């Protein structure tokens, strides 16, 4: 499985990757992107190797998480998409669900939270 | 209609930051009202008005930044001695303050969000003064394996 972690904080990307490893996903290919635009460019530049799962922050410069999700949907790329974000209001959860996100994890998180969210949808 | 922000407590601070820095993290109430040369996060409401700040001392920003990036405590100690933080550590402080916004939010509270993080010479003191009739909550935090520092919240009443 290929997993793409998208967050503008390098430390947060590192924490997500560490949590993924602790949750049992160490054997998978894990890539990182610094914002939505970089993630989008990575995906569109390698359409033969699209991630199976995208774990994405919401607020990022250049392209936000929800903009990335909408852009991928527009291109009919229906990868499993989950948000990992600080703000997790009811309104945001509804927007995420309506856009096709499978889950929204609030920061900070534990490896158990990540494992539970992923195993529910994959 | 909500008309307040949550006040951080030792329990909520320990719970939130413990998830980042380990269950051994200790938060204790402090009598501090202000911090000399603070690193400050400003939080704004939907009208872009500063409604809360979180001021931290250099040791807390350095130790939490090191713990966040999982680099040795000695790296933080060097920065404390030099009185200067790297861009990475300043970025970690921004991310940490973003997460700490949750300490003032609940389903029943008013909404706020992180606006900026400021270094001591970037108008930090003026930002704190912009909070009207603030309630003050202060904590001494000990990050396991790193060290301790101070955090002072000013939250609009």
Please render the helix and strand layout as text:
The complex is a heterodimer of chains A (122) and B (157).
Chain A: E1 2-6, H1 10-25, E2 29-33, H2 36-44, E3 53-56, H3 65-74, E4 80-85, H4 90-99, E5 103-106, H5 111-121
Parallel strand pairs in A: 1-2, 1-3, 3-4, 4-5
Helix pairs in contact in A: 1-5, 2-3
Chain B: H1 10-21, E1 26-29, E2 39-44, E3 50-56, H2 58-69, H3 73-82, H4 87-100, E4 113-118, H5 124-129, E5 134-143, E6 147-156
Antiparallel strand pairs in B: 1-5, 2-3, 2-4, 3-6, 5-6
Helix pairs in contact in B: 2-3, 2-4
By DSSP (H or I, 4+ residues per run), the number of helices of chain B equals 5
**Structural classification of chain B:** alpha+beta
Using the CA coordinates, give the radius of gyration of chain B.
15 Å
Output mean pLDDT of chain A.
Answer: 95
Q: How would you classify the quaternary structure?
A: heterodimer
Strand order of the largest sheet of chain B: 1-5-6-3-2-4
Order of helices and strands of chain A: EHEHEHEHEH
- Compressed to H and E, one letter per element, the order of chain B equals HEEEHHHEHEE
Radius of gyration of chain A: 13 Å
């Amino acid at each position: 499985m290929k997993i793409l972690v998208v967050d503008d904080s390098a430390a947060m990307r590192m924490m997500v990757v560490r949590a993924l490893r602790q949750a049992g996903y160490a054997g998978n290919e894990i890539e990182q992107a610094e914002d939505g635009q970089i993630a989008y460019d990575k995906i569109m530049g390698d359409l033969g190797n699209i991630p199976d799962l995208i774990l994405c922050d919401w607020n990022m410069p250049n392209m936000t998480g929800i903009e990335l999700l909408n852009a991928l949907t527009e291109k009919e790329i229906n990868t499993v998409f989950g948000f990992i974000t600080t703000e997790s209001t009811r309104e945001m959860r509804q927007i995420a669900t309506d856009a096709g996100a499978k889950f929204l994890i609030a920061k900070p998180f534990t490896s158990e939270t990540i494992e539970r969210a992923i195993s529910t949808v994959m | 209609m909500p008309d307040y922000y949550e006040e951080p407590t030792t329990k909520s601070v320990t719970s939130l930051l413990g998830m980042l820095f380990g269950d051994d993290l200790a938060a204790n109430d402090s009598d501090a009202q202000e911090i000399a040369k603070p690193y400050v996060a400003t939080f704004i409401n939907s009208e872009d008005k500063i409604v809360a700040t979180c001021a931290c001392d250099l040791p807390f920003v350095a130790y939490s930044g090191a713990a966040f990036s999982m680099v040795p405590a000695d790296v933080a100690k060097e920065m404390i001695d030099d009185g200067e933080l790297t861009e990475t550590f300043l970025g970690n402080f921004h991310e940490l303050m973003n997460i700490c916004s949750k300490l003032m939010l609940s389903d029943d509270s008013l909404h706020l969000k992180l606006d900026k993080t400021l270094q001591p010479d970037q108008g930090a003191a003026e930002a704190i003064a912009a909070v009207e009739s603030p309630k003050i909550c202060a904590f001494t935090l000990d990050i396991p394996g790193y060290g301790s520092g101070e955090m002072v919240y000013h939250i609009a009443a």
